[in-house]
Amino acid sequence: MAKQQIKLGLVGFGTVGVGVAKILQNQADLIAKRSGAEFTVVKAAMRDVNKKRDIALAPGAATTDWKEVVNDSEVELVVELMGGTDVAFEVVASALKLGKPVVTGNKALLAERGEEIFALSAQHNTPVYFEASVAGGIPIIKTLREAFVSNALVNLSGIINGTCNYILERMTDAGLSYQDALKEAMDLGYAEADPTLDINGWDAGHKAILLGAISYGFLPDPAKTYVTGIENVRLEDIELADKLGYAIKLISVVKPACDKTIEIRTQASFVPQTHLLAKVDGVFNAVALHGDEVGDSFIYGRGAGAGPTATAVIADLVDAANGSKGFLPYNATSYTVADIDETETAYFVSIEVKDEPGVMAQITSLFSNQGMSFSGTFSNVNPSEPDAAMNSVSFITHKAKLGTLKAALSDLASLDCVTNEPTYYRVESFE
Ligand SMILES: NC(=O)c1ccc[n+]([C@@H]2O[C@H](COP(=O)([O-])OP(=O)(O)OC[C@H]3O[C@@H](n4cnc5c(N)ncnc54)[C@H](OP(=O)(O)O)[C@@H]3O)[C@@H](O)[C@H]2O)c1
Question: Which of 66, 90, 103, 291 is 20 to 30 A off residue 247, Cα-Cα?
Fold first, then answer.
């Protein structure tokens, strides 16, 4: 598509769609000078054409029917910004079948239906670009695909959901309960009216799948990736983490494991307070990368919002204008997702116990029977009440497979002195 005047069709004219139209208008000169391309929105689909928007479209450009956008003979490039995985799939598939390149910010669509979409992209020799789908204003896909094209990825660890990061930060800094922090995030517009996909980890989980695809060239099966959210993070876990020199963050990890498998997981983890990721506050996102040649690299910025996300969409528009190849799986069958039970980290474990002699000995012997050992133990001692009851023990283990930890935790149920389901978190080491 190496040409100067490009006519766009937008499907979705909400937060991001309007943001794209505004930047294209406000920065038209800058974009044209830098890229040599001029973009015009000739058609845009939305549910309600009478809703007031921040920017006016050309007369006759607004429609409620996405097919009018995709099939419009003037439209050369389709920008899908409606969200969802059903109609949005039809939109993207129809555009590709017509040979019209697609730019999308829809991580759920690509993570869940990427196999079909990239097959269509290959079949019709028509690219799909999706920088906006991961971490909004952070150019992580470009970084992996272009800047680090010569490097094998050793570790990628990121905070790629701003809503969860905001909630965890407010629990940490203001001592808010999870529910109060979530309510605050919703009141401030940082969380959707239905925040399920944010807090259950799947928004970040979908992004991690795309980062795995870009980094290793295969389409990870979502069902085999490991995703848990922040719903069960307790204030007392955050306080204990803090005492031990850690912050609790929702971390997505993508890294090679053994035997051509790739570890892809998202969960609330202990992050050393000395690591840059522990210092990422509020709704910001950040990704720490380690490439085999470049070493450590760190990218930080806004993960969502009209300006950052539309900036990423427009970068893709320029790529399309320059005829850049989109992503196509290049190792389609070479890799699989690692079994989560085979993945290794250290762990923080907290166990509620009866205050009776021999508790620590029973617990340590049970863990050592599974071949696990501790790097340190912690129990809360009040110096003015040395005889107070001990009702919980916490420790950090040496590195072990998750499966081994689970076996040890399941054995714990047989101990009379254990009074509740243990809590555990991974302790990330970013190796
Ligand atoms: N918001 C962000 O910060 C952000 C960041 C990264 C990625 N994304 C992704 O970008 C996409 C768009 O997000 P957004 O925040 O802009 O969403 P949004 O504000 O809810 O906008 C969605 C748009 O799609 C339109 N729409 C929905 N269903 C439609 C249908 N069946 N036919 C025609 N139009 C339809 C809506 O019309 P009405 O306006 O008339 O309701 C609206 O204009 C999503 O995939 C999202 O995951 C968003």
Answer: 291
Residue 315, helix vs strand vs coil: helix
Domains of the chain: 5-129 (3.40.50.720), 140-298+331-340 (3.30.360.10), 343-427 (3.30.70.260)
Residues with CB under 6 A from ligand 1: 12-17, 45-48, 51, 66, 81-83, 87, 105-106, 132, 136, 304-305, 309
The pLDDT tens digits for 92-115 are 999 999 999 999 999 999 999 999
Contacts of 304 (CB under 8 A, 6+ apart): 136, 162, 283
**Closest CA relative to residue 304, chosen from 186, 190, 145, 143:** 190
Instruction: For ligand 1, atom 30, name the residue with the nearest CA.
Output: 47
Out of 20, 82, 192, 313, give the residue to mutate to test ligand 1, the one with the largest number of ligand atoms within 8 Å of its CB.
82
Q: Ligand 1: which atom is nearest the Cα of residue 19? A: 16
Written as one letter, the residue type at 341 is D
Indicate the pLDDT class of residue 150, thresholds 50, 70 and 90.
very high
Cα of 76 vs centre of ligand 1, distance in Å, is: 21
Share of the chain above pLDDT 90, in %: 92
How far away, in angstroms, is 114 Cα from ligand 1 center? 19
Active-site residue identified among 43, 107, 207, 249: 207
Cβ(347)–Cβ(396) under 8 Å?
yes
Q: What are the b/e assignments for 194-207, b being 16+ CB within 10 Å?
A: ebebbbbbbbbbbb
Q: Of 10, 11, 15, 68, which is best to mutate to test ligand 1, by the most ligand atoms within 8 angstroms of its C-beta?
A: 15
At 409, the pLDDT band (50, 70, 90 cuts) reads: very high
Contacts of 1 (CB under 8 A, 6+ apart): 76, 77, 101, 320, 321, 322, 323
Choose among 316, 335, 334, 339: nearest CA to 326. Answer: 316
- The residue contributing the CA closest to ligand 1 atom 12 is 81
Does 207 qualify as catalytic in the annotation?
yes
Cα 18 to middle of ligand 1, angstroms = 10
pLDDT at 2 (0 to 100): 43
Closest approach atom of ligand 1 to CA 203: 47
What's this model's pTM, rounded to 2 decimal places? Answer: 0.96
Residues 6+ apart with CB under 8 A from 207: 107, 111, 133, 134, 135, 160, 161, 252
Residue type present at position 10: L
1 confidence band (pLDDT: 50, 70, 90):
very low
